[in-house]
Amino acid sequence: MSDHLLQSLQAKTGDDFGSPGISFHSRVEGVFMRRSIIAMACMLGLSVHAFAADVKSISRLAAGPDNILFVADWKAAEVHAIELAPASPQPVGTTFNVLDLEALLSPQVGGAKVTVEDMVVRPTTAQVYVAISYGPDKAPALFLVTSDKKAHKVDLKAAHSTSIALREAPTASEKFWKQSPERSYTVTDMKWHDGELFVAGLSNQEFASTLRRIHYPFDAKQTITSLEIFHGGHDQLETRAPIRAMSFANLGGKPYLVAAYTCTPLVIIPLDDLKDGAHVRGKTVAELGYGNTPADMVSFTSAGQGKAKDFLMLVNYNRIADVIPVSELDAALARPGIEKQVPYGQITGLNVGEAPLAGVMRLDNLDDKSFVVVRRDLQRDALQLVSMGKDLSFRLTDHISEYTFPDFSFKGKKPQQQYVNMLLKDEGLPEFIKASD
Predict the structure, then answer these.
(1) Helix axes 24-44, 2-13, angle to 10 degrees
(2) N or C: which end of the chain has fewer CB within 10 A?
(3) Which of 226, 83, 225, 79 has the alpha carbon at shortest distance from 165?
(4) Half-sphere exposure of 199 (CA within 13 A, CB side)
């Protein structure tokens, strides 16, 4: 009778009740205990699938510790921590020249048109992970792309992983401009920093702009802070538009979040203020240009003129990139923030540089010497994955100039020749380097 009941329960629930050598009572008790643990995990927002992530979408990626890659899944309102196979460190100087990324990826998803959702570098390995969506249903896929122009699709169903549910995720069925689901902005940027995962996006609360802090390995300590900023270009306080790109900087001896919003206020927020349940007003320190959506932001160090300096690189969908000295942010910390209207079109607050990175959609540090970017080459209308030197941040082969012609001579102009040769070396194209006259 017990065996018959056991078989019936197995058929109805799909549970494995264990070996026949264990008593029926013990086997049923064990299953109920496991289910109670799973239910408690769900209440805490912890993982209930510890072996393979059920990834329904990918909006952002972040490289974590110990071979972990974080994947933000807006449809499920979860973050998955996927275990990657160990990889060896690679020397500085790897170059990427994937000049048609779509042709590389599309055949592996049935020839469908692909949209790059995010890109991240696995630190020290020269491994680049690219998340895409494809086809009419915007199915997600994740690829490892290497500098030898090969792409390997990651089997998400087989990858060991843990997951955490994002509390207070947007539930509205609203579509912005009848196109973009509000829920797709659950995670607008995600970065691993100093032992924590920082997740920017929207919540289902009245003050929807939200910053989450999540510990890993995942536990119940998920901190949710609502954010408010003064947007000088709009002349108003804003509590709903989310952070679009973020990074970190030490200012005045303390750690700060540096956040860029649409249209493009730049805001600093002390990390100590980002506590669970708090409502925080960030300090607006700059307005960097109207009619723009920030695409990505990373911190980096450049040794210009023999002295290392810290910067943030902010790339934009609708304008060229901003090179932001951390020293400028430090100086802004001591000044009053922007609290009144900024005239239409005026850039103010910080003395920032510009980098010719139009078309760059995603940016990350490849190594101490180079960035790697996903970009749409506007001249060739091609989706690309290419590396760029940090000192100059452009590729010589993007341009046709005097230097392009094979009979060009530097005629003793050694600084120009060194400059051009450095660019070509950074691109991984030593065959174009010309010998001295």
Answers:
(1) 30
(2) N
(3) 79
(4) 33
